[in-house]
Structure formats: structure tokens, C-alpha cells
Request: fold
Amino acid sequence: MTGSLDMNFLSIGHSSLQVDQFLALLKTHGVTMIADVRSVPFSRRFPWFSSRALADRLQSKGISYMMVGDTLGGRPTSPALYRDGVADYEAMARTADFYAGIDRVVRELANHRVCLMCAEREPLDCHRCLLVAPALAAKGVRIGHILGDGTIIPHASVEERLLALAGPGDLFGGSSERLRKAYRIRARAAAFRAPS
Reply:
């Protein structure tokens, strides 16, 4: 585990947290902007996480809100971005819209301590970790994932868990290829499935 100051970009899954718990986690780690990466920023079960209610609550606490689910969301609208009915993160990461979304959140680092937000508590169950975080890391951003208990795990530790889940690697593949395959396997299991 590491302190939040070691990371210049954070991520969090709101899961079933009460809004005050969620806000306390953000304040504890100095978050000044939420970048909402949900494709559908609405929750019937936890209405305080619906975009309008959340934006108002964040603003009252001095935290900015930016909706980027249209470019960085995990549920693409184009059928070309699905493979066998499952969102294809590798194809999504190659689109111009995705690049624009990444550039947009990275630009905010000049003025804010940005935290990606989605719904899933576990980073390895969410596109914010499996799709967005690798693109940010490729730009030199140091990412930490805030867990429900307030601890932060560096993205590198999440990648170690990802590799362990994928099992032993190929003797002839390099470590970067092994990591790519591990991302592909986990994304296939966790990605959004289009309704048939």
C-alpha cells in the first residue's frame, strides 16, 4: 500500500458507499475533481451517485465534476467495438474519441487532483482499471486505486494481481506481451456484454 501523494491520478468505484463515506474518501486523498467514466451515469439503487445529484453534492464540497463516459466509458455505442457481444477494450483504446478523452483528463492534472470514478468497487472488475488506467500509465501518469476502506493500491500492484490471475506465462513471450494477454483475459471476463 502507498500514500495518495505518491500518485498523481486516482480512481475509485463508488459501489454501495454512502455519499458521506464517499466524500470523506475524496477529501482524505485531496481529490479536487471527479472524472466520471460511467457510460450511464445513473443509479436507481444509489440515487446519490446519479450524475446530477452527485455533481451538486461534489460542488457543495468544492470538488469539480467532469463527465467523460462518452469517450472513456465501458459501454461503447458502436457495434464495431464489440467482439462476440463483449465490449472490446483493445479496439476501444485505439479510437480517436478515446484518445481525446485521455488527453482531456490528463490536461486537468495541471489544475486538479483528478480521480476517475465508476461503479465497481474492485479495480480488476472495472474498465477504469482495465481500459483507462493503462492508457494513462502510458502517458507517464502514476495511478492509485482507492479501495472502500480508504487504502490506496498503486496500479503496478493491481497489474501484479492481474498477472497472478492469468497464471504462468509463456516461456517465449516477453513480460509486456504477458501483461497484454492478462489484460485481454480479464477484460473479456469483466467487460460489458451487449444485450442480445
Remarks:
- The chain has a mean pLDDT of 93.
- The chain is about 40% helix and 15% strand.
- The domain at 4-190 is CATH 3.90.190 (Protein-Tyrosine Phosphatase; Chain A).
- The radius of gyration is 16 Å.
